[in-house]
Specification:
heterodimer; A: alpha/beta; six-stranded mixed sheet; 9 helices; about 40% helix; globular; B: about 70% helix
């Protein structure tokens, strides 16, 4: 049994009066790939944004790599440096070239020498197959290329965990595949991944487990095969029948 | 051939004839403004003759798709229909009426050479006035034999800035540090003197364009960082910092500069302990800095508001803290967005400097006020203000062009 790297216990979160997360319990083990799915507004994004504390939970406990996240967490930056994130809207830095996007955090946060950071960045860019775009600015790239650059940028920090917040939802159908391919490769390389996505094909291919969320609760969590072949909850069945 | 012409509807069949006829009428109309050939007619007719002739001329050359490129461009832009034609004619009339007298006053009838008021006998401007007072306008009441110190300070400044422009990236950093943290003190000690064997010149004697520059340069350098911090402060999640910033910004934005200057020079010393003294110029510079930094803060905040939340998310998710994220990601983008606004504030600052007149400091405009009330030189206010306007325009236009070139340089998004 490998080690638990993310632990969420009874996590609750409200936006004003609206409760987005209700008693979330979720443990993720090292090298596990988890796909989170569910209808929009079900709290999937909020859930994974809580894991690197882009959102603050109000009740419960989140422990990431042995550090508990709370207001008292002093070195939240250190934890974030170990948790990479890819966003729906890419969020590349438009004023920097792709290469600079990738080296910025390693140089300034991890204090990697510039030369080494650039080498590493080029390696990562090669892995996602946009090494030839390194000197361009984000605005000059297609959506799929931008998202792969964003993936490379996150990987340049050599994170232990990768979070994906609907990475393909803002892309043209043609470009979805190139991003998914890059993610599949990453999964095969043994990264711990939590992926919020509607791409059920991707889930079937790489996920160890699938988590289904609705109205802020985890409705069902099951091994991937089990989840698709034999969903237990009525809500899950309905959801699957609609998207498959 | 004339028979083929339909005057109501010019067409391209007899293009050249139409154009030459139109040109003749137009030129006649224009010429009539100056020479009044039709003066023998009753005044109510002769008055409208130029208008009618020009109108007819423009009508004759208004030929669509004539094939003549110049004519087509002309017709499209200033002669597309009768209303446009009339606007064009009026614009030309205005230019003819006003430009020659202005040029006459400025140059052709102006007096350039001489040394006293009596040399100006013509109707034009008396540039002798500016000539004689030039040193005063530039350096104020600064002792004439010490003027080289001001020159040296500014030439040094220009050279260092030039060095910063052309130096390699590595030396540039040090040059800029020197420029911001060391050079102002060199400049001030050179101009004020008092040590290194330089004669002490008190700030009351500083003046003219040099003072405009000194105040502008110092206020610009200081108000920028103060404005940045205020902008960040106003968006801070700590209520104490936020409300302090809001209070500061709203206070300085709500008070007229003239009041601020007056307070700084008259009221402020009353609140100081007995034995402390702060130079009036220093107080004025601080007052202008604080005043303009409030505006700067709001300009920068505009840029911060324009950035999508995703940029903050991305910065945070890469493990960056507040300062690092703002320094590397947020500020470069926000500042790039608000370059026009920053330029606006800077230009306003430069043009606000003449207000220091109210506290008895005489920069360029102040010196002109002084010169024009000199008993020997009464009556040359126009020359003085035109000159001042020209100098300010040069300075501000240069700044404006520089801001545009910066905008181009940092444009990476499309």
């Amino acid at each position: 049994m490998s080690q638990t790297i993310i632990q969420m216990k009874e996590v609750n979160k409200w936006f004003g009066d609206f409760q987005v997360l209700k008693d979330i319990n979720l443990n993720v083990e090292e090298k596990q790939k988890i796909v989170v799915c569910g209808p929009s507004g079900s709290g999937k994004s909020t859930l994974i944004r809580c894991i690197n504390r882009l959102e603050e939970h109000q009740k419960g406990q989140i422990i990431v790599d042995g550090h508990e996240l709370s207001e008292k967490t002093k070195d939240i930056e250190k934890i974030r440096a170990e948790v990479g994130m890819v966003f729906q809207q890419f969020n590349l830095f438009p004023h920097l070239s792709i290469l600079d996007n990738c080296t910025l955090a390693p140089i300034w946060v991890k204090k990697t020498p510039k030369k080494k950071a650039e080498e590493l960045a080029m390696q990562q860019l090669k892995k996602v197959q946009i090494a030839d775009q390194a000197m361009k600015f984000p605005g000059q790239l297609s959506g799929g290329q931008q998202q792969r650059a964003a993936l490379a940028r996150a990987l340049c920090m050599e994170p232990k965990i990768m979070l994906f917040d609907e990475p393909t939802s803002a892309l043209d159908p043609e470009m979805i595949k190139e991003v998914l391919d890059a993610m599949v490769n990453l999964a095969k390389a043994g990264m711990t991944m939590i992926v919020v996505t509607h791409e059920m094909g991707f889930a079937k291919e790489v996920a160890d487990e699938v988590v289904f969320m609705d109205e802020g609760m985890i409705v069902e969590r099951a091994k991937t095969k089990e989840f698709f072949a034999n969903p237990k909850n009525e809500r899950t069945k309905l959801f699957l029948s609609q998207i498959l | 051939m004339i028979k083929n012409l339909t005057f109501l509807k010019p067409n391209k069949e007899s293009l050249n004839l139409y154009i030459s006829l139109g040109a003749v009428f137009f030129v006649l109309g224009i010429a009539d403004i100056s020479f009044n050939v039709f003066g023998f007619l009753p005044i109510w007719i002769s008055y409208f003759v130029p208008l009618a002739f020009c109108f007819l001329g423009l009508h004759l050359i208004r030929i669509e798709f004539s094939g003549n490129k110049t004519l087509d461009v002309l017709n499209k832009n200033i002669n597309s229909d009768w209303f446009n034609a009339i606007l064009t004619i009026f614009a030309i009339f205005l230019l003819i009426k006003f430009i020659p007298p202005i040029l006459d006053w400025l140059f052709f009838e102006a007096t350039f050479v001489g040394s006293k008021k009596e040399d100006c006998t013509s109707d034009g401007a008396c540039w002798v006035f500016i000539n004689v007072w030039f040193e005063r306008l530039m350096y104020g009441l600064y002792p004439i034999k010490e003027i080289w110190r001001i020159n040296a300070a500014f030439i040094g400044l220009i050279l260092t800035v030039g060095l910063a422009f052309f130096a390699s990236a590595k030396t540039k950093k040090y040059v800029l540090m020197f420029l911001i943290f060391v050079y102002p003190f060199i400049m001030i000690s050179l101009i004020s003197g008092g040590n290194f064997g330089l004669e002490w010149v008190e700030t009351n004697a500083w003046g003219g364009l040099a003072l405009t520059f000194i105040i502008s340069i110092f206020a610009l350098t200081f108000c920028f960082p103060v404005g940045l911090f205020l902008a960040l402060g106003r968006r801070s999640s700590y209520p104490v910092i936020r409300y302090a910033s809001i209070g500061f910004i709203e206070f300085w934005r709500g008070v007229p500069l003239i009041t601020v200057l007056f307070m700084a020079s008259v009221m402020f010393p009353m609140f100081l302990p007995e034995d402390t003294y702060m130079d009036k110029l220093v107080r004025v510079i601080i007052a202008i800095t604080l005043f303009e930094s409030a505006y700067m803060a709001e300009v920068v905040r505009g840029g911060l508001q324009a950035l999508p939340r995703g940029q903050y998310d991305a910065g945070k998710s890469l493990g960056m803290g507040y300062w690092r994220m703002h320094l590397l990601i947020i500020m470069p983008q926000a500042l790039k967005l608000v370059i026009p606004g920053i330029a606006n504030t800077f230009l306003a600052l430069v043009k606000d400097t003449p207000l220091i007149l109210v506290v008895g400091l005489l920069e360029l405009i102040g010196m002109i006020d002084m010169a024009k009330t000199n008993p020997k030189w009464l009556g040359f206010a126009a020359e003085g203000y035109v000159f001042a306007g020209f100098v300010f325009w040069i300075v501000c236009y240069a700044m404006s062009r520089y801001s545009i070139s910066l905008e181009r340089k940092y444009k990476t998004d499309r």
